[in-house]
Amino acid sequence: MGAFPNPPRRRNKPAPHLSTFQKIKLALKLRKLTNDSTMKDKLQNLLSRKFLASLAAGLLVAVLNHFGVDADTTQQIVQIAVGYIVSQGAVDTAVAIKSVPSLKKDA
Predict the structure, then answer these.
(1) Distance between CA atoms of 26 and 33, rounded to whole angstroms?
(2) Distance, CA of 87 to CA of 93 (rounded, Å)
(3) Is residue 71 part of a domain?
(4) How many angstroms separate the CA atoms of 70 and 56, rounded?
(5) Are 61 and 77 in contact (CB under 8 A)?
(6) Is residue 83 part of a domain?
(7) Phi and psi for 33 in degrees, rounded to 5?
(8) Do 84 and 53 meet the contact criterion of CB atoms below 8 Å apart?
(9) Spatial contact of 57 and 79, defined as CB atoms under 8 Å apart
């Protein structure tokens, strides 16, 4: 008595073999995608000041905890980083509001 009365069907087809020309064509499409402006925007977001500040604060807190610095000092570092991030968010919001013409106050 077998585990399966009927053998299971193969649902996925095997991947087709790509010719050299198709591989080159695919590589050019991938290169075009990596040169896309959205990829540059994502990289720019990763290098934003807010992200780098949060990364630096987290790393600093981890190192200070490793060396046994008291919790009050690490808490102050986190509060400074959060304050910076919130204030930069407020500045970014103000700049975004000024850039939208319909949201500007009439003078």
Answers:
(1) 11
(2) 10
(3) yes
(4) 18
(5) yes
(6) yes
(7) -65, -40
(8) yes
(9) no
pLDDT at 70: 92
pLDDT at 35 (0 to 100)? 63
Judged by DSSP in three states, 89 sits in helix
Parent domain of 57: 40-100
For residue 95, which amino acid is it?
A: V
Q: Tell me the pLDDT tens digit for each residue of 1-56.
A: 556 566 666 666 666 677 888 878 888 877 776 666 676 777 777 788 888 899 99
The DSSP code sequence of 28-73 is HHHHHHHTSHHHHHHHHHHT-HHHHHHHHHHHHHHHHHHTT--HHH
Q: What is the DSSP letter of 5?
A: S
Environment class of residue 70 by beta-carbon count within 10 Å: exposed (0-12), middle (13-18) or buried (19+)? exposed
- How many domains is the chain built from? 1
